[in-house]
Prior knowledge:
By secondary structure, the protein is an alpha/beta fold. It has two domains: 23-144 and 231-273, Bacterial extracellular solute-binding protein, family 7 (D-Maltodextrin-Binding Protein, domain 2), CATH 3.40.190.170; 149-230 and 287-329, D-Maltodextrin-Binding Protein, domain 2 (3-Layer(aba) Sandwich). The chain has helices at 2-20, 36-51, 72-77, 96-102, 111-120, 123-132, 171-179, 189-198, 209-214, 240-245, 248-284, 293-311, 315-330; strands at 23-29, 56-61, 83-86, 136-142, 149-151, 165-167, 183-185, 203-204, 223-226, 234-239, 287-290. The longest helix has 37 residues, at 248-284. The protein is globular. The termini are far apart.
Amino acid sequence: MTLKLTLLATASGVLIASNVGATELKMQTFLGANASTTKAFEAMAARLKDETSGEVAITVLPGGAVVGAGETIDAIQNGLLDGQYTAPSYFAGKDAALGVLGDTLAAYPDSATRDRWFTEGGGLELARALYAKYDMHLVCPVYWPPEQIPSKVEIGSVADLDGIKMRAPGGLASDLLSRAGAALVTMGVGESVTAMETGVLDATDLANVALNVALGMHNQAKYSVLARHSMAVTEMSVSMDKWTALSSENQQKFEAACNAMSAELQTTLSDEDAAAEATATDDLGVTFVAFGDEDASKFRAMTNEVWADWGGKSADAQAVVDSHKAFMATIGLD
Protein backbone atom coordinates (compact mmCIF):
# COMPACT_ATOMS: atom_id res chain seq x y z
CA MET A 1 0.00 0.00 0.00
CA THR A 2 2.82 2.38 0.88
CA LEU A 3 4.56 1.65 -2.44
CA LYS A 4 1.31 2.24 -4.35
CA LEU A 5 0.72 5.58 -2.64
CA THR A 6 4.30 6.59 -3.33
CA LEU A 7 3.93 5.79 -7.03
CA LEU A 8 0.65 7.68 -7.25
CA ALA A 9 2.16 10.69 -5.52
CA THR A 10 5.15 10.61 -7.88
CA ALA A 11 2.94 10.34 -10.96
CA SER A 12 0.79 13.23 -9.77
CA GLY A 13 3.88 15.30 -9.18
CA VAL A 14 5.06 14.66 -12.74
CA LEU A 15 1.67 15.70 -14.15
CA ILE A 16 1.62 18.89 -12.12
CA ALA A 17 5.18 19.71 -13.08
CA SER A 18 4.47 19.14 -16.77
CA ASN A 19 1.68 21.73 -16.70
CA VAL A 20 3.54 24.42 -14.77
CA GLY A 21 4.93 26.02 -17.93
CA ALA A 22 1.73 25.64 -19.96
CA THR A 23 0.24 28.77 -21.55
CA GLU A 24 -3.48 28.43 -22.24
CA LEU A 25 -5.06 30.71 -24.81
CA LYS A 26 -8.75 31.24 -25.57
CA MET A 27 -8.87 32.38 -29.19
CA GLN A 28 -11.97 33.26 -31.20
CA THR A 29 -12.16 32.97 -34.96
CA PHE A 30 -14.37 34.96 -37.32
CA LEU A 31 -16.41 32.17 -38.94
CA GLY A 32 -18.60 29.35 -37.63
CA ALA A 33 -17.63 25.99 -36.19
CA ASN A 34 -18.03 24.16 -39.53
CA ALA A 35 -16.00 26.61 -41.63
CA SER A 36 -12.81 25.28 -43.20
CA THR A 37 -10.87 28.10 -41.58
CA THR A 38 -12.09 27.14 -38.11
CA LYS A 39 -11.33 23.46 -38.69
CA ALA A 40 -7.85 24.36 -39.94
CA PHE A 41 -7.29 26.43 -36.80
CA GLU A 42 -8.38 23.51 -34.60
CA ALA A 43 -5.97 21.18 -36.40
CA MET A 44 -3.17 23.74 -36.05
CA ALA A 45 -3.87 24.13 -32.33
CA ALA A 46 -3.71 20.36 -31.83
CA ARG A 47 -0.39 20.08 -33.70
CA LEU A 48 1.09 23.01 -31.81
CA LYS A 49 0.10 21.48 -28.48
CA ASP A 50 1.86 18.25 -29.46
CA GLU A 51 4.94 20.04 -30.79
CA THR A 52 5.31 22.02 -27.55
CA SER A 53 4.57 19.05 -25.27
CA GLY A 54 1.42 20.78 -24.06
CA GLU A 55 3.10 24.10 -23.27
CA VAL A 56 0.96 26.01 -25.79
CA ALA A 57 -2.69 25.02 -25.39
CA ILE A 58 -5.16 26.89 -27.60
CA THR A 59 -8.91 26.61 -27.16
CA VAL A 60 -10.47 27.51 -30.52
CA LEU A 61 -13.80 29.30 -30.24
CA PRO A 62 -16.01 29.82 -33.32
CA GLY A 63 -17.16 33.24 -34.44
CA GLY A 64 -19.58 34.89 -32.01
CA ALA A 65 -18.92 32.40 -29.20
CA VAL A 66 -17.79 35.13 -26.80
CA VAL A 67 -18.24 38.46 -28.60
CA GLY A 68 -19.05 39.79 -32.04
CA ALA A 69 -16.43 39.92 -34.80
CA GLY A 70 -15.83 43.64 -34.30
CA GLU A 71 -15.36 43.28 -30.53
CA THR A 72 -12.53 40.78 -30.22
CA ILE A 73 -9.75 43.34 -29.70
CA ASP A 74 -11.69 44.86 -26.79
CA ALA A 75 -12.32 41.36 -25.43
CA ILE A 76 -8.60 40.58 -25.56
CA GLN A 77 -7.75 43.81 -23.78
CA ASN A 78 -10.39 43.05 -21.13
CA GLY A 79 -9.19 39.48 -20.61
CA LEU A 80 -12.28 37.75 -22.01
CA LEU A 81 -10.15 36.36 -24.84
CA ASP A 82 -6.44 35.80 -25.26
CA GLY A 83 -6.29 36.00 -29.03
CA GLN A 84 -8.09 36.01 -32.35
CA TYR A 85 -8.07 34.68 -35.90
CA THR A 86 -9.90 37.38 -37.78
CA ALA A 87 -9.77 40.20 -40.34
CA PRO A 88 -8.39 43.65 -39.39
CA SER A 89 -11.11 45.26 -41.53
CA TYR A 90 -13.62 44.45 -38.78
CA PHE A 91 -11.93 47.23 -36.80
CA ALA A 92 -11.92 49.91 -39.51
CA GLY A 93 -14.31 52.00 -37.42
CA LYS A 94 -12.01 51.69 -34.41
CA ASP A 95 -8.75 52.49 -36.18
CA ALA A 96 -8.35 53.66 -39.79
CA ALA A 97 -4.94 52.01 -39.95
CA LEU A 98 -6.50 48.61 -39.22
CA GLY A 99 -9.03 49.31 -41.96
CA VAL A 100 -6.26 50.04 -44.49
CA LEU A 101 -4.27 47.02 -43.30
CA GLY A 102 -7.33 44.79 -43.55
CA ASP A 103 -8.31 45.31 -47.20
CA THR A 104 -6.05 46.28 -50.09
CA LEU A 105 -8.99 46.53 -52.51
CA ALA A 106 -7.85 46.49 -56.16
CA ALA A 107 -4.23 47.45 -55.49
CA TYR A 108 -2.84 43.99 -56.28
CA PRO A 109 -3.82 41.43 -58.94
CA ASP A 110 -4.20 38.59 -56.43
CA SER A 111 -3.80 37.68 -52.76
CA ALA A 112 -0.50 35.86 -53.26
CA THR A 113 1.12 38.98 -54.76
CA ARG A 114 -0.31 41.17 -52.00
CA ASP A 115 0.95 38.82 -49.30
CA ARG A 116 4.50 39.35 -50.57
CA TRP A 117 4.18 42.81 -49.04
CA PHE A 118 4.26 41.17 -45.61
CA THR A 119 7.39 39.13 -46.32
CA GLU A 120 9.28 41.35 -48.77
CA GLY A 121 7.93 44.86 -48.27
CA GLY A 122 8.18 45.33 -44.52
CA GLY A 123 4.45 44.77 -44.03
CA LEU A 124 4.79 42.24 -41.22
CA GLU A 125 6.96 44.55 -39.13
CA LEU A 126 4.59 47.47 -39.75
CA ALA A 127 1.54 45.40 -38.84
CA ARG A 128 3.18 44.12 -35.67
CA ALA A 129 4.05 47.67 -34.61
CA LEU A 130 0.41 48.64 -35.11
CA TYR A 131 -0.89 45.69 -33.07
CA ALA A 132 1.64 46.40 -30.33
CA LYS A 133 -0.24 49.65 -29.67
CA TYR A 134 -3.14 47.46 -28.55
CA ASP A 135 -0.82 45.31 -26.40
CA MET A 136 -1.11 42.51 -28.95
CA HIS A 137 1.27 40.52 -31.09
CA LEU A 138 0.38 39.61 -34.68
CA VAL A 139 1.63 36.05 -35.13
CA CYS A 140 1.17 35.86 -38.90
CA PRO A 141 -1.10 36.88 -41.75
CA VAL A 142 -3.30 34.01 -42.97
CA TYR A 143 -4.26 33.39 -46.59
CA TRP A 144 -7.74 34.46 -47.67
CA PRO A 145 -8.99 33.88 -51.24
CA PRO A 146 -10.24 36.47 -53.74
CA GLU A 147 -13.78 37.65 -53.06
CA GLN A 148 -16.52 37.72 -55.68
CA ILE A 149 -19.80 39.59 -56.06
CA PRO A 150 -22.96 37.46 -56.48
CA SER A 151 -25.26 39.45 -58.75
CA LYS A 152 -28.66 39.10 -60.39
CA VAL A 153 -27.54 41.33 -63.25
CA GLU A 154 -24.42 41.08 -65.38
CA ILE A 155 -21.59 43.33 -64.21
CA GLY A 156 -18.75 43.24 -66.69
CA SER A 157 -17.00 46.51 -65.96
CA VAL A 158 -16.56 49.29 -63.41
CA ALA A 159 -19.12 51.35 -65.35
CA ASP A 160 -21.73 48.58 -64.92
CA LEU A 161 -21.67 49.12 -61.13
CA ASP A 162 -23.35 52.51 -61.52
CA GLY A 163 -26.79 52.36 -59.89
CA ILE A 164 -26.49 48.72 -58.80
CA LYS A 165 -28.31 48.13 -55.50
CA MET A 166 -25.73 46.29 -53.43
CA ARG A 167 -25.24 45.11 -49.89
CA ALA A 168 -21.90 46.22 -48.49
CA PRO A 169 -20.45 45.81 -44.98
CA GLY A 170 -18.74 49.19 -44.68
CA GLY A 171 -15.06 50.09 -44.60
CA LEU A 172 -12.76 50.60 -47.55
CA ALA A 173 -14.53 48.20 -49.93
CA SER A 174 -17.78 50.12 -49.50
CA ASP A 175 -15.92 53.36 -50.12
CA LEU A 176 -14.53 51.97 -53.39
CA LEU A 177 -17.88 50.61 -54.58
CA SER A 178 -19.67 53.87 -53.82
CA ARG A 179 -17.09 55.75 -55.91
CA ALA A 180 -17.99 53.44 -58.78
CA GLY A 181 -21.63 54.52 -58.41
CA ALA A 182 -23.12 51.52 -56.60
CA ALA A 183 -26.14 52.25 -54.40
CA LEU A 184 -25.03 50.65 -51.13
CA VAL A 185 -27.26 49.15 -48.45
CA THR A 186 -26.00 48.05 -45.02
CA MET A 187 -27.55 44.77 -43.84
CA GLY A 188 -26.60 41.41 -42.37
CA VAL A 189 -25.70 38.35 -44.40
CA GLY A 190 -28.97 36.54 -43.70
CA GLU A 191 -30.99 39.59 -44.63
CA SER A 192 -29.15 39.95 -47.92
CA VAL A 193 -30.21 36.49 -49.09
CA THR A 194 -33.86 37.46 -48.63
CA ALA A 195 -33.25 40.89 -50.13
CA MET A 196 -31.86 39.28 -53.27
CA GLU A 197 -35.01 37.14 -53.53
CA THR A 198 -37.39 40.09 -53.08
CA GLY A 199 -35.55 42.44 -55.42
CA VAL A 200 -34.36 44.87 -52.75
CA LEU A 201 -30.80 44.05 -53.85
CA ASP A 202 -29.25 43.43 -57.25
CA ALA A 203 -25.95 42.19 -55.83
CA THR A 204 -24.01 41.74 -52.61
CA ASP A 205 -20.42 42.16 -51.49
CA LEU A 206 -19.88 39.09 -49.34
CA ALA A 207 -17.09 36.52 -49.64
CA ASN A 208 -15.36 33.92 -51.80
CA VAL A 209 -17.19 31.58 -54.19
CA ALA A 210 -17.48 28.61 -51.83
CA LEU A 211 -19.03 30.68 -49.04
CA ASN A 212 -21.34 32.49 -51.46
CA VAL A 213 -22.64 29.17 -52.78
CA ALA A 214 -22.95 27.65 -49.29
CA LEU A 215 -24.96 30.65 -48.07
CA GLY A 216 -27.44 30.32 -50.94
CA MET A 217 -26.50 33.56 -52.67
CA HIS A 218 -26.57 31.96 -56.08
CA ASN A 219 -30.10 30.63 -55.75
CA GLN A 220 -31.11 34.01 -57.17
CA ALA A 221 -27.84 35.53 -58.37
CA LYS A 222 -26.93 34.04 -61.73
CA TYR A 223 -23.67 35.95 -62.04
CA SER A 224 -20.48 35.82 -59.96
CA VAL A 225 -18.22 38.79 -60.57
CA LEU A 226 -14.48 38.85 -59.91
CA ALA A 227 -14.05 42.62 -59.76
CA ARG A 228 -11.08 42.53 -57.35
CA HIS A 229 -12.95 45.19 -55.39
CA SER A 230 -11.91 43.64 -52.10
CA MET A 231 -8.79 41.70 -51.14
CA ALA A 232 -9.16 41.03 -47.46
CA VAL A 233 -6.34 40.26 -45.04
CA THR A 234 -6.90 37.77 -42.26
CA GLU A 235 -4.52 37.27 -39.37
CA MET A 236 -3.82 35.48 -36.11
CA SER A 237 -2.87 37.56 -33.07
CA VAL A 238 -2.62 37.18 -29.30
CA SER A 239 -2.31 39.41 -26.26
CA MET A 240 1.23 40.62 -25.65
CA ASP A 241 1.17 39.18 -22.12
CA LYS A 242 0.41 35.72 -23.46
CA TRP A 243 3.01 36.06 -26.21
CA THR A 244 5.81 37.14 -23.89
CA ALA A 245 4.91 34.32 -21.49
CA LEU A 246 5.98 31.84 -24.18
CA SER A 247 9.58 30.73 -24.47
CA SER A 248 11.48 31.91 -27.54
CA GLU A 249 11.37 28.35 -28.88
CA ASN A 250 7.59 28.13 -28.48
CA GLN A 251 7.11 31.53 -30.07
CA GLN A 252 8.98 30.25 -33.12
CA LYS A 253 6.88 27.06 -33.16
CA PHE A 254 3.66 29.12 -32.89
CA GLU A 255 4.68 31.34 -35.81
CA ALA A 256 5.75 28.35 -37.90
CA ALA A 257 2.43 26.60 -37.19
CA CYS A 258 0.52 29.73 -38.20
CA ASN A 259 2.42 30.05 -41.48
CA ALA A 260 1.92 26.36 -42.21
CA MET A 261 -1.82 26.73 -41.64
CA SER A 262 -1.86 29.68 -44.03
CA ALA A 263 -0.15 27.62 -46.74
CA GLU A 264 -2.56 24.73 -46.19
CA LEU A 265 -5.56 27.06 -46.41
CA GLN A 266 -4.32 28.46 -49.71
CA THR A 267 -4.69 24.96 -51.14
CA THR A 268 -7.88 24.05 -49.27
CA LEU A 269 -9.79 27.24 -49.98
CA SER A 270 -8.66 27.35 -53.62
CA ASP A 271 -9.84 23.76 -54.11
CA GLU A 272 -13.17 24.54 -52.42
CA ASP A 273 -13.68 27.59 -54.63
CA ALA A 274 -12.95 25.56 -57.77
CA ALA A 275 -15.43 22.88 -56.71
CA ALA A 276 -18.06 25.49 -55.83
CA GLU A 277 -17.56 27.23 -59.16
CA ALA A 278 -18.18 23.94 -60.98
CA THR A 279 -21.32 23.29 -58.92
CA ALA A 280 -22.61 26.83 -59.46
CA THR A 281 -21.97 26.61 -63.20
CA ASP A 282 -23.39 23.13 -63.78
CA ASP A 283 -26.21 22.95 -61.23
CA LEU A 284 -27.24 26.58 -60.67
CA GLY A 285 -26.60 28.07 -64.09
CA VAL A 286 -24.22 30.74 -62.78
CA THR A 287 -22.02 32.67 -65.21
CA PHE A 288 -18.61 33.74 -63.91
CA VAL A 289 -17.35 37.15 -65.03
CA ALA A 290 -13.91 38.71 -64.43
CA PHE A 291 -12.98 42.35 -65.00
CA GLY A 292 -10.36 42.86 -67.69
CA ASP A 293 -7.06 44.72 -67.46
CA GLU A 294 -8.58 48.10 -68.34
CA ASP A 295 -11.12 47.91 -65.53
CA ALA A 296 -8.50 46.55 -63.16
CA SER A 297 -6.49 49.70 -63.85
CA LYS A 298 -9.56 51.89 -63.25
CA PHE A 299 -10.22 50.19 -59.92
CA ARG A 300 -6.55 50.52 -58.96
CA ALA A 301 -6.76 54.26 -59.63
CA MET A 302 -9.91 54.44 -57.48
CA THR A 303 -8.08 52.48 -54.78
CA ASN A 304 -5.47 55.23 -54.68
CA GLU A 305 -8.29 57.75 -54.13
CA VAL A 306 -9.67 55.67 -51.26
CA TRP A 307 -6.18 55.33 -49.79
CA ALA A 308 -5.67 59.09 -50.00
CA ASP A 309 -8.79 59.67 -47.91
CA TRP A 310 -8.18 56.88 -45.40
CA GLY A 311 -4.49 57.67 -45.09
CA GLY A 312 -5.46 61.17 -44.08
CA LYS A 313 -7.33 59.82 -41.05
CA SER A 314 -4.17 59.01 -39.05
CA ALA A 315 -0.40 58.82 -39.26
CA ASP A 316 -0.54 55.05 -38.84
CA ALA A 317 -3.01 54.69 -41.71
CA GLN A 318 -0.79 56.82 -43.93
CA ALA A 319 2.22 54.71 -43.01
CA VAL A 320 0.42 51.56 -44.22
CA VAL A 321 -0.60 53.30 -47.46
CA ASP A 322 2.92 54.59 -48.09
CA SER A 323 4.44 51.18 -47.42
CA HIS A 324 2.11 49.48 -49.92
CA LYS A 325 2.81 52.09 -52.57
CA ALA A 326 6.55 51.75 -52.11
CA PHE A 327 6.36 47.97 -52.44
CA MET A 328 4.03 48.16 -55.43
CA ALA A 329 6.55 50.40 -57.19
CA THR A 330 9.25 47.76 -56.74
CA ILE A 331 7.11 45.10 -58.46
CA GLY A 332 5.85 47.32 -61.27
CA LEU A 333 2.36 48.11 -60.02
CA ASP A 334 2.82 51.87 -59.58
